[in-house]
Specification:
Number of strands: 10
Strand content: 25-35%
Distance between the termini: 36 Å
Structural class: alpha+beta
Helix content: 25-40%
Oligomer: single chain
Low-confidence stretches: 5-9, 88-110
Strand order of the largest sheet: 2-3-4-5-1-6-10-9
CATH class: Alpha Beta
């Protein structure tokens, strides 16, 4: 176990966890694709996203200072929450006859921490594939760790593909004046995932330890086609149609996972997880 540091003053390390989460669906008809976008836009509107980020703040032990939310036309939503490491002191909230706090006293509670989320529903014009992307940033300063929110966010959005980046910036000093560029042990983002989550996903790590940069890609291993069909069920499809759609869905997942377009031949060799 890493020995607890004795710090000189405030912990100035900034820890940022960034997610790209993708949910994939197959909507055969143009009307179904429109309905999928409308469904996603309703289920993950600004109010719902605010509730999710409030849960994240509770999980990581942060205090909410301010919330801004916005739904967009024709689709998508954004929410930003300012958070602090510690609760605002009760004397700052009282109605007693006394001077208010000085600016530096207020800033000390902000800790330069925030949680943001943006959504991007979209669909392919011809092939029936629709996707829903969620971008999330959890940035904390001080003792609060964004890594505690990993499992909750992955399961909340029923993620097919997850791209994770974790970065520790800045430094803090101990009581002897020595700089510390990270204050906790980490070998991989995977260390902070539950066992059942790790078993559900194929994962790749690209880490730069000397820069305190950690990158993990996750792709769901098993495909239950009924979970991906929108506006139709497998009972209405022939075996050949099911195979074709499953191949399309898997190809879409592989392209997101590897970050490049794949030819029919190259993707076919990797379609079976």
């Amino acid at each position: 176990m890493m020995r607890k540091l004795q710090l000189h003053g405030f912990n100035n390390l900034t820890k940022t966890l960034s997610f790209n989460i993708y949910d994939i669906a197959y909507a055969q008809k143009a009307a179904h694709r429109r309905e999928y976008i409308e469904y996603i836009d309703e289920v993950y509107n600004a109010d719902r996203l605010t509730d999710i980020l409030n849960d994240v703040a509770n999980i990581i032990g942060a205090n909410i200072l301010n919330t801004a939310r916005q739904d967009y036309d024709p689709q998508g939503a954004s929410v930003t929450i300012m958070i602090s490491e510690e609760a605002v002191a009760s004397e700052l909230l009282s109605n007693t006859k006394a001077p208010g706090p000085l600016p530096e006293a207020v800033v000390s509670h902000l800790d330069k921490s925030h949680i943001t989320v943006h959504t991007y529903p979209e669909s392919h014009p011809d092939h029936g594939i629709s996707t829903f992307r969620v971008d999330i940033d959890v940035s904390t300063c001080g003792r609060v760790s964004p890594l505690k929110a990993l499992n909750y966010l992955i399961h909340t959005f029923e993620s097919d593909i997850v791209i994770l980046d974790y970065r520790v910036r800045g430094f803090t000093r101990d009581v002897r004046g020595r700089k510390h560029f990270i204050d906790h042990r980490i070998d991989s983002i995977q260390d902070f995932l539950s066992r059942d989550t790790r078993e559900q996903y194929q994962m790749i790590d690209v880490n730069v330890y000397q820069e305190n940069m950690f990158h993990t890609k996750m792709m769901l291993k098993d495909i239950d086609l009924d979970d991906y069909l929108f506006g139709i069920g497998t009972e209405a499809l022939s075996d050949a149609e099911q195979h074709k759609i499953r191949t399309q869905v898997r190809k879409e997942m592989l392209e997101m996972f590897y970050g490049r377009n794949m030819s029919r031949g190259s993707s076919k060799r990797q379609l079976d997880p």
